[in-house]
Amino acid sequence: MNSSFELLEALKNANLLQDSTDINWWSNSGSFEVIVGAILTQQTKWEKVEKSLKNLKENNILNLEKLATIDTKILAILIKPSGFYNTKAKRLSTLCRKIIEEFGDFENFQISVTREWLLAQKGVGQESADAILCYACKREALVVDNYTNKILKEFGYEFDSYEEIQQWMMQGILENMDRVDKLYEGKLNLSTIYSRFHGKIVEFGKSKKDIKDLF
DNA sequence: GGCCAGGTGTAAA
DNA sequence: TTTACACATGGC
Predict the structure, then answer these.
(1) Considering only Cβ atoms within 10 Å of each terminal Cβ, which end of chain A, N or C, has fewer?
(2) CATH number for domain A4-25+142-213, candidates 1.25.40.10, 1.10.1670.10, 3.30.750.24, 2.40.30.10
């Protein structure tokens, strides 16, 4: 493997996920609940996050305004299945308040927020920041996670920082856009390509398959 | 019963 | 500037 494009190609051809899942790998992309999911999924399986999201939905508080004002003790109980619930409840509620203070509403947040602003928030590290940018705001950001680290290491690539991995991953796509278009049989916007790329990496990682199965 | 999951912040060294 | 540890549940 010489560029990240070849990894994307191999992962797509491996058919790890159904087309429908590929298209909307992060459920309800572009909506506020992606922010909630991004915090809840930290070091946590997505199935647990879904339980928490269901609890929030059933109590009609899965929205920016409610989460900004809710008692964190109550919020903690509702997100308990996702683990680290006290910490996550506090950080999530604070984040929602800050979003309202700074941007007013979610729609303005989507078009105005910067990576730097996100990183300045407690509980939002590089991965969550990029997840929010890509899946909640539809920005051109590729999420790097432990699965990405692991798979690149297995191919013999070593990087010193998150940003270096991200750069390498995104560059390989940008330099091969013609091949990307062919792979997907049409033009997709970059945010969508990055979103699907990350999704495939995660699914491959979860499948515990060997990289030998890819090439 | 130990290990891990779609991380992050903080305190020591 | 690195490293260790806390945060916590639930499935295998």
Answers:
(1) C
(2) 1.10.1670.10
